[in-house]
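hey can u check if this looks right to u? its 151 residues, i copy pasted from the old doc so theres a chance i mangled smth
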Amino acid sequence: MKKSYIRITKIFKFETAHSLTGYDGLCKNIHGHSYELQVTMAGYPIEDQNSPKLGMVMDFSDLKKIVKEVIVTPFDHALVLRSDVPETLISELKNLYEKIILLDYQPTSELMLADFAERIKAKLPGNIKLKHLLLRETVTSYAEWFAEENE
């Protein structure tokens, strides 16, 4: 059989609240989304006849562990805000809630997606490449990241 370069995709779901500081619409208010993140990796299937992963580009359970660690667990049921929100507000929120993430960027789907790409790439084995991410914010709205456009 000819050696083929293959893409694999796994889908993750998590709930996150955020607000867009300085935005001129409703999203300046704290609100939540049921996010869906599609993660596509690529590589050559393992050919080692003695490997328990024979024929796999990457074990889906290994991909799940990575994405859960760097994205799903930290972001699920968290309040995500830009780090330049007034300190008094941050202190009050931290008194009331456990999971608050402060980011150095506006927490839009677009910028979160770019951040997610870097977080995932940092954990991948060298023979696997992150190729594509799709972050669905609502059933009708999503952002995409492609490796070939970000090299």
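The radius of gyration is 18 Å.
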